[in-house]
Amino acid sequence: MSHPNDFQPITIAPMEIEERSFAIIAQEFGAHDFTPEQFTVIQRIIHATADFDLGRSVAIHPQAIAAGIQAIRAGRPIIADVQMVQVGISKPRLSRFGSDVFVHISDSDVAEEAKATGVTRAIMAMRKAARTYKGGIYAIGNAPTALLELISMVKSGIAKPDLIVGVPVGFVSAAESKEELLKLDIPYITNRGRKGGSPVAVATINALSLLAVQSDQPAGEARV
């Protein structure tokens, strides 16, 4: 038997919870200069983290949203730095376009090469990805060394990603790696400072896949 003073949720309907959450985020975020598509990404990042300061720290290259949608709709791979990112990304939306999420940090050959050369597995995973895939979206939420290595390979012409989602979290090289990403003249989505993490990378990719699905849906069709 419930006590009369027990807290009761406003709603338990999943879609209604999400819609109310996004309405609250839009109201509390206030005026901004993001496009509607860019703000879809911002909203989902805030929804995943409940962190408005993190949301306001996001930087989106002018071509990033279009590049992300185009890559997903073309079935390009999503390359994650860690399994936490891979697991969190919505696979059904990606599968509509023949896209999938790959992560190589736990591959045996990556571990062996990392040990032999004395670098992190995250670095070796990025090197393997650059050898394996043409283009694609790189989603880095955990390892600053992965982002720095990817930036280095972009500069040298070894890697040519369609989009980099670079939002690693941490105290060592996380903020610095994102500042380096901001210097690249290719599509990116990142944020300034130490905050970030796998949930941010996941929310960003899920927002892009939602936009990719919505781009060929009749107006008013329900979300998936």
Give your account of this protein's structure.
- This protein has 224 residues and is of the alpha/beta class.
- The chain has a domain at 59-214: Cobalamin biosynthesis CobH/CbiC, precorrin-8X methylmutase (Rossmann fold).
- Helices cover 52% and strands 9% of the residues.
- Helix 9 (144-156) packs parallel to helix 10.
- The two termini are 37 Å apart.
- Succession of helices and strands: HHHEHEHHEHHEHEHEH
Helix content: 40-55%
* Number of DSSP strand runs: 6
CATH architecture of one domain: 3-Layer(aba) Sandwich
The biggest sheet, with number of strands, parallel, antiparallel or mixed sense and barrel status, is: 6 strands, mixed
- Remind me, CATH topology of one domain? Rossmann fold
Overall mean pLDDT score? 91
- Name of the level-1 CATH class of one domain: Alpha Beta
Write the layout of secondary structure elements.
Elements lengths: L13 H16 L6 H14 L2 H5 L1 E3 L3 H10 L4 E3 L2 H6 L2 H5 L5 E3 L4 H10 L3 H12 L4 E4 L3 H13 L6 E4 L7 H9 L5 E4 L6 H17 L10
Parallel strand pairs: 2-3, 2-4, 4-5, 5-6
Antiparallel strand pairs: 1-6
Protein name: Precorrin-8X methylmutase
GO molecular function, one term: precorrin-8X methylmutase activity
Pathway: Cofactor biosynthesis; adenosylcobalamin biosynthesis
